[in-house]
TrEMBL record:
This is Aspartate/glutamate racemase family protein. It comes from the Bacteria. Pfam families: Asp_Glu_race (PF01177). PANTHER family: PROTEIN DCG1 (PTHR28047). It comes from Pandoraea fibrosis. Belongs to the HyuE racemase family.
């Protein structure tokens, strides 16, 4: 059976399971015979990636031998952190498609020259986020990032507050910046992204389903009619 490995570059097994559940549910909704999705959690680093140093450690952890060995057995791989840490090195080691939730969701938001913003919880990653958008070639239509207030890790522990503050960030992207699509920037924000997608008239893009769509295309599996 075809299977996808979803790598969580932070150390939270709860986040891994949440992202795996989102991926499984999405794939089951669009494919008659969806691939199996399994998760892998890195063994060192931070429980949530909130700054540049966390990204550096995550990139190393994603490429540790035990993770690479699991990835080599999969038919496709998702790197489940918004900065896509370690993805290029991982691709160089593997012969299967590897996508990241960051690049996948940004490409989807920017499709057709659409103006888009990013709403997330990690202001210390503002430079990294903007840099990655520009590297992908979408700087001209990027309206900027809007960040929630408060400690990102603590906020993640209160889902209702997380959703409320992210909703305000999404609204700022739309009303103040002129975005016509908004990416929710982070794997741990996956459940909030699903809820927010139902609250706005423009696309609010969850990073895990976006990565699933990109990987389906890369694996040439095709979606069910």
């Amino acid at each position: 059976m075809t299977h996808i490995l979803l790598i969580n570059p932070n150390t939270s097994t709860a986040t891994t399971q949440m992202m795996v559940d989102i991926a499984r549910t999405y794939l089951a909704s669009v494919m008659s015979s969806p691939p199996m999705v399994v998760g892998a959690t890195v063994t060192r680093g931070a429980p949530m990636i909130v700054d540049e140093q966390d990204l550096v450690v995550a990139a190393e952890a994603v490429n540790e031998p035990q993770i690479v060995a699991l990835a080599a057995q999969a038919d496709g791989v998702i790197v489940g952190a918004f900065g896509d840490p370690g993805i290029e090195a991982l691709r160089a080691r593997l012969e299967v498609p590897v996508v990241g939730i960051g690049a996948s969701s940004v490409r989807e938001a920017a499709a057709g020259g659409r103006r888009f913003g990013i709403a997330t919880t990690t202001p210390m990653l503002a430079h990294s986020i903007a840099s990655n958008v520009h590297k992908l070639g979408f700087g001209a239509t990027f309206t900027g990032s809007r960040f929630t207030s408060g400690d990102p890790l603590a906020l993640g522990g209160v889902p209702s507050q997380l959703e409320s503050r992210l909703a305000r960030a999404v609204d700022a992207c739309i009303q103040q910046d002129g975005a016509r699509a908004v990416v929710i920037g982070g794997g741990p924000l996956g459940e909030a992204a699903q809820a927010l997608g139902e609250q706005f008239s423009i696309p609010v893009i969850g990073p895990v389903p976006a990565a699933c769509r990109a990987l389906i295309q890369a694996m040439r599996l095709g979606e069910a009619a």
